[in-house]
């Protein structure tokens, strides 16, 4: 497994044999089984698999957890080696954003809803770094988790709008046995918060079940999720949404493809989760 922070070395390796397909998994490290599911799919579907580990400063805003974000590089590399990854790219912020950097990549409208309403500069940072990683690797396929549902919608738009020559592959959310979506941020939770956090998936599942039983009033579905989460004293809701999966706009009458999503604080830790319901 090659581990490098050098862009030229990545390019050299990538184009050593241009006939080989490459799968890329962009990550911020602190890897867990959710990341590994993406890595395994990338390995199965491509002749070579690459992972990037970069805690991207441009997708954090002031007051967020950039400085405290976990960075267990040694154990991440051991996991990736065991998973059979060919190349790991571990750049520094100076390598990705050298002095004089001033370019932007933005998906304007889709970036404003949901996560974007709470984190206004977040997706501009995501699209910028992912576009740069795509240009550096020129992967055949790139792998992302449904856990970050809006990210997949925004990136799909970017790939389409900018005619990027690769396929995005979206992988299902990996969960702990009690339903909590795996996340690098789960390690911030106190034992009491960790015990309370499965309420998020329970609320999503209850809402999903109600919809499938014919309750398609958006307001009722959002209120049901709110009530369930507010029953948990350690939880503080940021948003709860029942939106159109393609436009990300809130819906009054749920129909078509629906994204149920939420962001909830447990102490300082902000967790997100979602479920999708198709063809209503
Ligand atoms: P991150 O390191 O949090 O930026 O995540 C890197 C990639 O892993 C993103 O595409 C995430 O959506 C994906 N991911 C994170 N958690 C999970 C999970 N529990 N299941 C599946 N994919 C995930």
Describe the structure.
This protein is α/β, with parallel strands linked by helices and 280 residues long. 37% of the residues lie in helices and 20% in strands. It is built from 10 helices and 9 strands. It has helices at residues 7-16, 33-45, 73-82, 93-96, 115-118, 122-137, 149-161, 191-196, 199-212, 218-230; strands at residues 2-4, 22-27, 48-53, 87-89, 141-145, 167-171, 235-244, 258-266, 269-277. The strands form 2 sheets. It has a 6-stranded parallel sheet, with helices on both faces. Strand 5, helix 7 and strand 6 (167-171) form a beta-alpha-beta unit. Helix 6 packs across helix 7. The longest helix has 16 residues, at 122-137. The radius of gyration is 19 Å and the shape is globular. Adenosine monophosphate binds at residues 27-28, 34-35, 37-38, 144-145, 147-148, 171, 173-174, 181-184.
């Amino acid at each position: 497994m090659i581990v490098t922070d050098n862009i030229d070395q990545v390019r050299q390796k990538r184009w050593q044999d241009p006939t080989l397909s490459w799968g890329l998994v962009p990550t911020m490290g602190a890897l867990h089984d959710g990341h590994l599911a993406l890595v395994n799919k990338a390995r199965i579907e491509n002749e070579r698999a690459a992972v990037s580990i970069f805690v991207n400063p441009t997708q954090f805003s002031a007051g967020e957890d950039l400085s405290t974000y976990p960075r267990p590089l040694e154990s991440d590399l051991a996991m990736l080696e065991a998973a059979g990854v060919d190349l790991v790219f571990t750049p520094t912020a100076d390598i990705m954003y050298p002095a004089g950097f001033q370019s932007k990549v933005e998906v304007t409208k889709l970036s404003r809803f949901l996560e974007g309403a709470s984190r206004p500069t977040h997706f501009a940072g995501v699209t910028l770094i992912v576009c740069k990683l795509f240009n550096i690797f020129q992967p055949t396929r790139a792998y992302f988790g449904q856990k970050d549902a809006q990210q997949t919608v925004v990136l799909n738009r970017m790939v389409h709008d900018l005619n990027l020559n690769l396929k995005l592959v979206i992988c299902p959310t990996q969960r702990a046995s009690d339903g909590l979506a795996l996340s690098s941020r789960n390690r911030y939770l106190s034992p009491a918060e960790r015990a309370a956090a499965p309420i998020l998936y329970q609320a999503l599942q209850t809402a999903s079940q109600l919809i499938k039983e014919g309750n398609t009033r958006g307001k009722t579905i959002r209120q049901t999720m709110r009530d369930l989460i507010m029953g948990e004293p350690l939880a503080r809701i940021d948003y709860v949404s029942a939106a159109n999966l393609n436009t990300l706009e809130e819906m009054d009458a749920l129909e078509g493809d629906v994204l149920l999503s939420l962001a909830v604080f447990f102490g300082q830790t902000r967790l997100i989760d979602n479920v999708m319901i198709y063809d209503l």
